[in-house]
Amino acid sequence: MQSVENKMPEFIEENKSDELPIEQQLIEAQKEIEDLKSQLMWMERSYE
């Protein structure tokens, strides 16, 4: 049990350093979602 407690601060520090890339991934994913929504709207219009 003691070894798990010793590793915990390192794990927390790793999470802090990963926050920025995760935020960037979320921004890029949101852009991709908006692009796909736009493509779907275009496809729906072509079927009308």
Give me a quick take on this structure:
This is ABC transporter Uup C-terminal domain-containing protein. By secondary structure, this protein is mainly α. Helices cover 96% and strands 0% of the residues.
Could you give the count of β-strands? 0
Strand content: under 5%
Portion of residues within helices? over 70%
Measured on Cα atoms, how large is the radius of gyration?
Answer: 20 Å
Q: How many angstroms separate the termini?
A: 64 Å
What is the SS-derived class? mainly alpha
| Average pLDDT rating | 78
List unreliable stretches of 5+ residues.
none
The number of helical runs is 1
Sheet with the most strands, sense and barrel status: none
What series of H and E elements makes up the topology?
Answer: H
What best-fitting shape do the alpha-carbon axes yield? rod-shaped
Protein name: ABC transporter Uup C-terminal domain-containing protein
What order do the helices and strands come in, and which of them pair?
Elements: H1 2-47
Protein name: ABC transporter Uup C-terminal domain-containing protein
Organism: Thalassotalea insulae
Description:
With 48 residues, the chain is mostly helical. It has a domain of 28 residues. It is built from 1 helix and no strands. It starts with a helix and ends with a helix.
